[in-house]
């Protein structure tokens, strides 16, 4: 079988790495991958990003399955283009991907289908948004209504931070949000207390197969200080997701979402990621939906997955319906996995490019370095900005996985690199 993976980040490196392990897969091509995937002779690469061009290439090359990694191609309708030509592709349609690409759509959907989430309001007018913040007080959450590569959410602990976030999103667009039709819009939500977790399922129609649970660390610096990022590290499983919380998440959030999408005439297939806030009583509420795997959560989840990823996604794209997916019972490594992100100088606001990366260790069964923001120039590996690497390791406990991950990254060097030294601390405390 020939597989195409669309995307350039650490998530796509991890997915391609896992897909290549399947006995049924004889070729994995990335569009367009990164420096790390290009160093691996297992993978092929193409320099295409336009949905039509990708579809044409997949037809010519008789690609059996395409897997979409990031959010931007989904929002651009790549799945619609491929399906119109009868090609097998894993991911939601453009309309279904609005669960992620439009926070306003997502919040209205959750309200309509009684899916537990924070109270909210939506604004296009900065003055009205500022007045709402003054009325509600802090802490409060401000979200950009559009794709922002995981950075369009500000948890404002003070009124000043909240007002600044509104100006960033509605007036300056300094966070680089891809605004939806109708221009700049923000969603302002109540602040939820509790502990966050990532809950991801493989879905087709109203069938969902949950993946291993995970938690990520969003803030740039140790002890959850500094600016919000796309994620500075993650681990799996998440101790906060007890069997009871897991059952509630499936019963109250994942399955009602799939049934709600079907009722609205937008059947869902692909990864469905629910960012959960779990309160002290173990009740989850939905912070947001993503229509893809999380990054860096994918890396530790793929390290723990023992089942064949290709077989899973092949079943989830069966044109005859979800019967094949319903049969799936995923097998997981009993060990924990933990990934530490190494980010570029200046990340997240002004990441620097061009720094040379040295000291990368060889791949091991228990420790992998997944690449994100890297490029290969001749034999030289260079930083392309943002999150650069995710050093991921397995261990008998989160603490053991943490120890091996930090041990593995010791030799890696590039100027200005940033990484947290406390990834996994929440799980170790518990």
End-to-end Cα distance, whole Å, is 43 Å
Oligomer: single chain
Low-confidence stretches: none
Proportion in helices: 25-40%
Average of pLDDT:
95
What gross morphology would you assign?
globular
Number of helices: 15
Fraction of residues in β-strands: 25-35%
Q: How many individual β-strands? A: 24
Please report the first level of CATH classification, the CATH class of the largest domain: Alpha Beta
Whole-number tally of structural domains: 4
- Going by CATH, the architecture of the largest domain would be 2-Layer Sandwich
Main β-sheet description: 5 strands, parallel
The structural class is: alpha+beta
Strand order of the largest sheet: 3-2-1-4-5
In brief:
This protein is of the alpha+beta class. The chain is built from 15 helices and 24 strands.
Can you characterise this structure?
There is one protein chain. The chain has 4 domains: 2-98, Rossmann fold (3-Layer(aba) Sandwich), CATH 3.40.50; 119-190, Dna Ligase, domain 1; 195-326, D-amino Acid Aminotransferase, Chain A, domain 1 (2-Layer Sandwich), CATH 3.30.470.20; 336-429, Glycinamide Ribonucleotide Synthetase, Chain A, domain 4, CATH 3.90.600.10. The strands form 7 sheets. Strands 3-2-1-4-5 form a 5-stranded parallel beta sheet, with helices on both faces. Strands 14-17-20-24-21 form a 5-stranded antiparallel beta sheet. Strands 6-11-7-9 form a 4-stranded antiparallel beta sheet, sandwiched between helices. It starts with a strand and ends with a helix. It has 15 helices and 24 strands. Helix 1 runs parallel beside helix 11 (298-304) and helix 3 (51-60) packs parallel to helix 5. Helices cover 31% and strands 27% of the residues. 52% of the residues are buried. The chain is α+β, with helices and mostly antiparallel strands and 430 residues long.
